[in-house]
Sequence to fold (370 residues):
Amino acid sequence: MNKIIKLFLIVTAVGFLASCSKPDENSTSSIAHETVPQKIYHWKLVTSWPKNFPGLGLAPERLATWVKEMSAGRLEIKVYGAGELVPALEVFDAVSRGTAEMGHSGAYYWKGKAPEAQFFSTVPFGLNAQEMNAWLHYGGGLELWQEVYEPFGIIPLAGGNSGVQMAGWFNKEINSVKDIKGLKMRIPGLGGEVMTRLGALTENLPGGEIFTALQTGRIDATEWVGPYNDLAFGLNKAAKFYYYPGWHEPGTTMELTVNKKAFEGLPKDLQKILTVAARAVNQDMLDEYTAKNNAALKQLMESGDVKLRPLPADVLEKLKEVSDQVVLELSETNPNAKRIYQSFNEFRGNVIDYHKISEQAFINARKSPE
Ligand code: CA
Fold:
């Protein structure tokens, strides 16, 4: 008997709810409004990295997961590794023309389209990760970046930072500036221009092509990221000398690019979810590198055939001198570049002054006795 009553109550309740959910043409009741199914957005995100590559490739995957969870499934982002939908170095174009709604890459890859974009990835002897994030989010950097990408119909967001990188893997020792002459090296961005001026033959290869190029001798040297990522590619099996510090990439910002029309087509709450998730991913990548690089370096050193070397002081000095010249020349490329340079340079000067008595003074004070 009880079962029958229960069944009756359930049937009645379902019937009542169903009648409520039918939108009544004459009714403006909120119940009718709320039951209209919400639109689900299906987006594509293309990247310059192998699918699920540590750090770089995991960041867009996390973005997709977090956005899906926060939006209760209303914004689904499918992540593509390099070459799955478009080649690694065509991410910018794909987002610009709307082939994909989003991209994850590095701004210095687009120097052929907008040379000043390089300020928003990394500048040799420029800003470290902490300083870069500060300039972008509290120093006017992000607004300048958005202006640069506006003509391409793209909205840029910071999408991760590697921290200070390594100078790279070399099959030849660098004992003086002369050793750079004739060196065939994979190194992108402004760092590549600096090495070119010192006589190196530089090129930019997508990450996935580096190991083979180094192993076969097509190149003598490469920079990639740091221990965590370099170990993932097994670069220690293709070169012996591992040089530091990453003068050319002191805190590289990865970019999340969003097709402007697609972004503007999202409801306001999904726009906010996306931008806040990007901010979270940006910090998360740095946390991941900071945690993983230590163990990865130990593993590389224990592999037995790696020689860890600092770049000689006079080589670093020359690199700095040429870098300053290259960055100054970049600032003269166009009016945008000049404004960005002024903002970047002023911020850099101020932060260096303060960090002398804060971060730097602390790290000096903390160093273990030699
Ligand atoms: Ca790099």
Summary: Residues 7-32 have pLDDT under 50 and may be disordered.
